[in-house]
């Protein structure tokens, strides 16, 4: 009986786990656009709260080594800071982004990096949220132009492979944090 319960809980856990439905990386000139769709087994409010809170970001991504909410700017806009570190093959790099956050509750979050204090000429990251069955679909887009070099011929392929390889654990951790916040 105990084994049957364990097997059932494993099956249910697999069925209800976060699901990466799509991921693409494109390059146009020096700009990169990363898009993905992920389904989370949690409500819109809970998953939205996780993505809006930059203090949580380093808890679910091994690529993000430091992240935090910053004090609002003079206009009252939310602000963020993220420091990433990652390696692709033998090439390792750390880079920072800091800027402002725009959001419409439970619909969209946009983070716009300030080029003067970030390692990007431009960086716009967005998450769109919509209820989907018993969970939430999150459509992510990251449009950026780095101040650092990414190999142009293989960059998109290598970025996509790295994201695919590292995403499963991160998505499950995001979902677990969100489920812990559900009411």
Defining traits:
alpha+beta; Alpha-D-Glucose-1,6-Bisphosphate, Chain A, domain 4; 183 residues; single chain
Folded structure, characterized:
This protein is α+β, with helices and mostly antiparallel strands. The chain has a single domain (18-181), classed as Alpha-D-Glucose-1,6-Bisphosphate, Chain A, domain 4, CATH 3.30.530.20. It is 30% helix and 45% strand. It has 4 helices and 8 strands. It has helices at 2-15, 44-52, 57-60, 155-181; strands at 19-28, 31-40, 64-70, 78-88, 91-104, 108-113, 120-132, 135-146. The chain has an 8-stranded antiparallel sheet with strand order 1-2-8-7-6-5-4-3. A hairpin with a 3-residue loop joins strand 5 and strand 6. Helix 2 crosses helix 4 (155-181). The two termini are 31 Å apart. Mean pLDDT is 86; it is low at 1-15.
List the helices and strands and how they pair.
Elements: H1 2-15, E1 19-28, E2 31-40, H2 44-52, H3 57-60, E3 64-70, E4 78-88, E5 91-104, E6 108-113, E7 120-132, E8 135-146, H4 155-181
Antiparallel strand pairs: 1-2, 2-8, 3-4, 4-5, 5-6, 6-7, 7-8
Helix pairs in contact: 2-4
């Amino acid at each position: 009986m105990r084994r049957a319960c364990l097997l059932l809980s494993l099956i249910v856990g697999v069925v209800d786990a976060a699901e990466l439905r799509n991921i693409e990386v494109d390059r146009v000139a020096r700009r990169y656009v990363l898009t993905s769709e992920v389904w989370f087994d949690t409500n819109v409010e809970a998953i939205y709260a996780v993505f809006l809170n930059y203090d949580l970001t380093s808890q679910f991504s091994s690529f993000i080594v430091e992240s935090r909410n910053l004090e609002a700017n003079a206009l009252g806009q939310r602000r963020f800071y993220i420091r990433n570190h990652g390696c692709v093959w033998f090439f390792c790099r750390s880079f920072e982004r800091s800027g402002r956050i725009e959001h419409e509750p439970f619909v969209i979050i946009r983070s716009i990096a300030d080029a003067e204090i970030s390692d990007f000429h431009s960086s716009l990251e967005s998450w769109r949220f919509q209820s989907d069955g018993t969970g939430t679909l999150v459509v992510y887009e990251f449009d950026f132009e780095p101040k650092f070099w990414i190999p142009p011929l293989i960059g998109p392929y290598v970025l996509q492979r790295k994201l695919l390889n590292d995403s499963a654990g991160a998505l499950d951790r995001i979902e677990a944090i969100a489920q812990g916040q559900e009411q």
